[in-house]
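Q: What would this complex look like in 3D?
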Amino acid sequence: MKKLINHVDDVLAESLDGFAAAHGDIVSLGSERLFVQRRAIRRGKVALISGGGSGHEPLHAGFVGHGMLDAACPGHVFTSPTPNQMVAAAESVETGAGVLFIVKNYSGDLMNFQMAADLLDRDNATVIVNDDVAVENSTYTTGRRGVAGTLIVEKMVGAAAERGDKLAALKTLGETVNRATASMGVALTACTVPAAGRPTFQLGEDEMEMGVGIHGEPGRRRVKLTGADDIAAELTGAILKELAPGRGQEVILLVNGFGGTPVLELYLMVHAARKVLADSGVKAVRYLTGSYVTSLDMTGCSITLTAVDPGMLALWDAPVHTPALRWGI
Amino acid sequence: MSHSALIRAATQTLVDHVEELTALDQAIGDGDHGLNMKRGALAIQSRLQELDNKPLNEALKSMGMACISTIGGSSGPVFGTLLVTLAKDLPPAPGPADLARALGTSIAALTRLGKAEVGQKTLLDVLDPVRRLLENPGESSGEDLLARVHRCALDAAQATAQMDAIKGRASFLGERALGHVDPGSRSMALIIGAVCDSLRVTQ
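A: Here is my prediction, written as structure tokens for the whole assembly.
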């Protein structure tokens, strides 16, 4: 394992300290590093709190700031945070309008956020994000994972909270955006969790893992590596099958790197995905390209589409000022 | 009897098996289970002296809260809730029937928490066979029963390899999870085994 670290036990703490120093104009670190919070808290605004295992940076702490989250709770690498973290964050940023938790659909995250909600003596609601179409859903399973679409939910709900929407309306909006959003990913190499010291799975030189998650957990199928057009066709095709957009439907296209893939290749994938969209009569009206919901040093990418109406598009375009996303300000 | 020897044994086995637990979780999960259990085990060991002076119930509750606030992931709420529920239900010096009843309550609490049931490749598949054995130990008692419980827990964990995962991250793998032991079940069996061995020594 070759990584820029000192001791595996200190990775999270040292990275959080650097993050808080680098973005001290926007965020501050809560006591005992339990959470990252927005520096300029707006009284009377619903507090948006997310969190999850670390290793997906800039998700979630990179999205704390004006127009997005009020606080983010970082767990250990790929491990959901503990209930006391969410309670401490809520007590620090909630100002009377209630708390909306945005939670990715994993057993651990659900249980820890649920325990926090039970402990919390303030109005709260939860939106669960489950945009990964690689997982076949069923009433009997944990269901689909929350992956890169989480960014889009956090952005749109964040914009709506900023304009003054109430807790119940924000929960409904979050669920609407989640339903309009679908993602799927592919890995070319696995990631290495610092404390584990070796890659989570092994892929041959000519293999890729189709339908991979964001924790280095294996996907559904291991297949031969093909060209970018074929990969984009499979990912985008699965997403379109799920969203079933009408001809002329407008979408946001997010091509998200997993942490180890060059920007050069991500834009190539944007080009490849556009061809698939054109064939389906779907129109990409906004793009976001970069490594936003990562899986440590995994190479590969995910494609996310959100079918938008003018209202959702306005929320996407609304000003945002966070460490990782900034526009309109 | 002081609990510190028992608690040390039950936690040290997780520290000693961290590599094995990591490998099991890398096969069908995301590879964090071993490290998470080790973190919880060390958090409990750091409170050993304080735990030793408490009655059994309070010690169990305090260990459960330590799990919930330090482990994270699924294991924090699951092992934490197990300990907290046992704390509520166990008398000061529990016998096999008391343990069986408290395990029944704990299984119900974990089912509510994780929406999982027996037979779904989770640690419930270790707890339930152990509960049934304690409920109907037959002629068995004392050291013999402890040995049987130990064996029952290990076998039950091993048997999860042949179950389909429909909860947790392994569920995303579908049939690819078949043939792999559930890491949480293995941890549960290690803990039960260490508790049995520790009690046999002190009998």
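A: To summarize the key features: Chain B has one domain: 4-202. The CA atoms of residues 95 and 134 of chain B lie 9 Å apart.
Q: Very helpful, thank you.
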